[in-house]
Amino acid sequence: MTDTVDANETDIPTLEGDAADAVAHRGSHIQIIAAAGSGKTEVVSQRVADLIATGVEPRSIVAFTFTEKAATELKERIRQRVTARVGHAAGDKLGQLQVSTIHAYCFRLLQTYDPRFEACSLVDENQLVALMSREGNRLNLKRFGRGLFDGIKNFLRSVDVLENELIEVDDLPDGDFKEAVRDYYAALDRYRVLTFGQQIVQAVRALEHPAIHAAVTAVVEHLIVDEYQDINPAQERLISLLASPTGRADLVVVGDDDQAIYQWRGSAVDNIVTFTERYPDVAQFRLLTNRRSRPGIVTLANEFAGSIQGRLEKEMLPFRPASGESVKITVGSGTEADEASELAKSIAELNASGVPFRSIAVLVRGKAAYPKIMDAFAAHDIPVQPGGRTGLFEQPVADALGSVYTWLADLQWKFAGTKARVDVTLDEVVLALVRAFTLNRRSLQLVRHHLTEWKAMAATTSSSVDLIGDLYALLGLLGVKDWNLDDLLVRNTLGTIARFTQVLADYESVQRRSRRDPANPGEQVGTAWTPWYYKSLAILMVNYASGQYDDFDGEEDLAGDAVPLGTVHGAKGLEWPVVFLPSLTKKRFPSMRTGSQQKWLVPREMFDAARYEGSDADERRLFYVAVTRARDWVSLSSHARVTKQSGAPSPYLESARAIAGVGGHAESLDAKSLEIPDLRLSYSDVAAYLACGRSYLLRSRLGFLPPVRDELGYGNAVHHVMRVLAERTKDTGEVPSASDIDALVDSDFFLPFANKPAHKQMKARARALVQTYLDSHPEEFLRTWATERPFELYLDGVVVAGRADVIYDEHDGVPSNLAIVDYKTATGPEIEPLQLQIYADAGRREGLTVSAGFVHDMGKGVRRSVDVSDGAVSAAEGRVQSAAAGLRSLAFTPSPAKEKCTHCDVRLLCKDSAS
Question: Which candidate in 8, 35, 480, 684 could, as Cys together with 316 as Cys, close a disulfide (CB 3.0–4.6 Å)?
Fold first, then answer.
């Protein structure tokens, strides 16, 4: 028997042919070749719903997507289909269903099965470069390029190859690169950081360990991999370890070799082309009917795809009826600015005829096309969705702030719009700040005095530096807290400043990062404070950050009406009624760099270097993807000159004209109504918004970051120790001894930013807290039911996700009764019950008997009960719904209170602060 479902949840497409067969098939691996617009997400969603409807547990299903956004969308679609098939009760149990990117899955796997990695921090590309600038001399990276930063770039590109291809360091020929790679990985281990590529490599190594492989594969019975054509060799190895016959999972791969557009990042299209040769007993299904695009678009894409070398033979078929012209091709004779102006006029005319701006996308091969298009849009008042299309330091506020930090370190700075770096004086810095921040005379004097004192301190510093805190102090003098946050243009400028804090945080997060002390096990070494702290930041800013950081992406507004403008790579998986593909010139599409032999530190014979360097086939696939983003009408165009220099049209544009002719304007467009997806929030998001909407706006939406403090990570380190002890007790049935705790704390208690004395002090405090807990509750570890257990609460229009620290069974002596405990290293006079009420609600919806909830203050050794009665849980749902409504309506009301504001990281930026 199923419960009642809403009407909109029963509107499920009826699948036929191969689509229906792919949903129903069992007992072997499946390859689904899915042409553009063929409804692969619907097929995958209905297959998962069918599995669950026939008794498969959600926790035994894993689905990999290429992006986090795609993961969110797929899980929401699955929930809708499961609810329609089986009812709301089944939909409420999907918190255990694993839908994520491969990288997110690998990081969670490592943290779950190899506790060492719970103390690791993930570093992105910018943070990794900052770390390498710190370690550059030790690793002697200058030898790999023209100077340090060119050497870093070449070195890291080649390390990516090692990780993508799973090439062992021992297999490299002896020499400088092999030596540097060994030292590089040793440095990552000392600092306890994990890179993007290492997440996959370390997960593969973990799965190759028999005990971990047995534990993981005991759970995973069904594995689905979307966008399989974009998988690299390391990811394919991971998949093969989970799938039978090595693992237990029935594998479903979904993709289209014609849409493989990431080979330059290591993906291998051969994975999908040769899938049936590498896996036994494969059932193949073909989804070749394009339900998205009109026939003219399908014909153009289909015939063009025939020119891609090495592709699987197939023909995409149209589904929709023809309705006038659906393609227009213009080989321009004017300048790039002329083409952009015509583009803007066409968009304005479409909008005047009733087509929303959000239904019209403009896609380009590379960012070089942005400036002229943005200028034309500004001239014709065309609104554009946010996207970070310009460099951060091209913006006046970031440019001015950049000059401050280079002046502090006596380095040269290249001001925006100029061609060369110049020496910077205090007068020039102040002038740049005046222009960007509009200072009055008094503020100007205060800022000048502040900068003078700051420089004197920077030149002699030997104590702790707080880069972000110092910036917030300067922003206070610059009057930022008085800006009108209701003005979207002002908010965008604030977003740019917040993006600048990311530059400081990326540097500080690795420059201040502590490392393990090899001479003294269980201890760590912190940063030495010298004037070089500022100078190294300025060097990084001048040589790397100024050219690599994009401007503020903008605030997401799900109901806003503006034109999406982006790259074709960024449009993968998206669609619009109208798509413009401008700037199709010979030097831009295909890219001039495609096929050029690059410098690698890995011998070319050890990997397929040509795959990374690109080919005409890669560029043709990208063009195919661009065309198939359009539902009703696609316009392709070029220009003859950038300014005076002439240029030929893209050969792909010429091919398209030979296939489709010049085409014409669309007679009708089917602009779909905007679908507002459910809000997906973490518990932390909800709590932060309810605490203060203004703080949430500044921190979560605009991106202002907290200062780095010595004690940062203390709570996580204590949580980690408690989790490992609970799991060991669960596995062995024995309460850990004092020596067990000592050994664990020595090996695993790591604070990212604490120096040696602070680490010793906090480690001793943590050791005492853990012992006090065990002394007070020795029986609880023996009743451990789960640690770090994920929950998802599904309410109308909002999904809240989180993880419970620990859950004990046999509460009040009843085996099935569960108690959720949340560890806190410190609490105030009042506790916030919402978190445990949400988890209790989600757990009960899954069918668990959650009978109690407790907040345990580790510092005070005090446990407080949380009301998880039906009435309290219902009230908690109301608070969540209230937060969701406020976020949807973009209401960010301040909630000032002296105690709260005193500890708020962004108080100096908030005019309502009560501190």
Answer: 35
Read off the tokens for 404. Answer: 């401050």
152 burial level (CB within 10 Å; 0-12, 13-18, 19+): buried
Rounded CA-CA distance 110/634 in Å is: 45
Look at the block and give the residue holding tokens 């908690």.
Answer: 876
Query: Do 492 and 695 touch, CB atoms closer than 8 A?
Result: no
* Cα–Cα distance measured from residue 485 to residue 905, given in angstroms and rounded to the nearest whole number: 17
DSSP 365-431: SSGGGHHHHHHHHHHTT--B-----SBGGGSHHHHHHHHHHHHHTT--B--TT-SS-B---HHHHHH
The answer to whether residues 28 and 283 touch, using CB atoms and an 8 Å cutoff, is: yes
Q: Identify the three-state secondary structure at position 558.
A: coil
Work out the angle between the directed axes of helices 196-207 and 233-242 (0-180°, nearest 10): 30
pLDDT value for 5? 42
Strands 798-808 and 817-824: antiparallel
Helices 233-242 + 210-217 axis angle, to 10: 70
| Long-range CB pairs of 486-492, under 8 A, 24+ apart, other chains included | 488/555, 491/555, 491/702, 492/386, 492/552, 492/554
**Whole-number Å distance between alpha carbons of 800 and 69:** 16
pLDDT given at position 773: 87
Instruction: Please provide the distance, in angstroms rounded to a whole number, between the alpha carbons at the two ends of the chain.
Output: 57
One-letter-per-residue 3-state SS of 69-95:
HHHHHHHHHHHHHHHHHHCHHHHCCHH
pLDDT score of 7: 44
With beta carbons less than 8 A apart as the criterion, state whether 340 and 373 touch.
yes
The model carries a pTM of 0.90
Q: What DSSP assignment string belongs to 680-704?
A: EEEHHHHHHHHH-HHHHIIIIIS-P
pLDDT at 630: 94
Count CB neighbours of 47 within 10 A: 26
User: Which residues, at least 6 apart from 558, have a Cβ–Cβ distance to it below 8 Å?
Assistant: 674, 676, 677, 888
Q: CB of 690 within 8 A of CB of 353?
A: no
The H-assigned helical ranges of 319-381 are 336-352, 370-379
Closest to 522 measured CA to CA, from 740, 720, 748: 748
- The residues pairing with 855 across neighbouring beta strands, listed in sequence order, are 822, 864
Residue 691: its pLDDT value, please?
Answer: 92
**pLDDT value of position 388:** 64
Q: Which two tokens stand for residue 777?
A: 């509750």
Q: What is the DSSP letter of 543?
A: I
The Cα–Cα gap between 637 and 639 comes to 7
Which residues of the chain have a pLDDT value below 50?
1-8
Which amino acid makes up residue 889? S
Bond prior to 245 in cis (omega within 30° of 0): yes
Residue 317 has what DSSP assignment? E
* In 110-258, beta strands by DSSP E: 121-122, 193-194, 222-225, 250-255
Which tokens is 683 given? 């518990």
Q: Which two tokens stand for residue 149?
A: 């930063």
Report d(CA 201, CA 159) in Å as an integer: 12
Q: How far from 375 is each of 125, 381, 418, 774, 834, CA to CA, in Å?
A: 30, 10, 19, 65, 48
**Which 3 state secondary structure label does DSSP give 315?**
coil
- Reference 78, options 26, 23, 21; nearest CA is 23
Helix, strand, coil percentages (3-state) for the chain, rounded to 5, are 50, 15, 35
Q: Which residues are bridge partners to 101 per DSSP?
A: 65
- The tokens for 813 are 């002596």
* DSSP per residue, 625-672: HHHTTEEEEEEEE--SBSSSSB-PBPHHHHHHHHHH-SB---S----P
Could you give the count of Cα atoms lying within 13 Å of 540 in the half-sphere of its Cβ? 27
Instruction: Tell me the CA distances in angstroms from 511 to 472, 537, 703, one per residue in order.
Output: 20, 9, 21
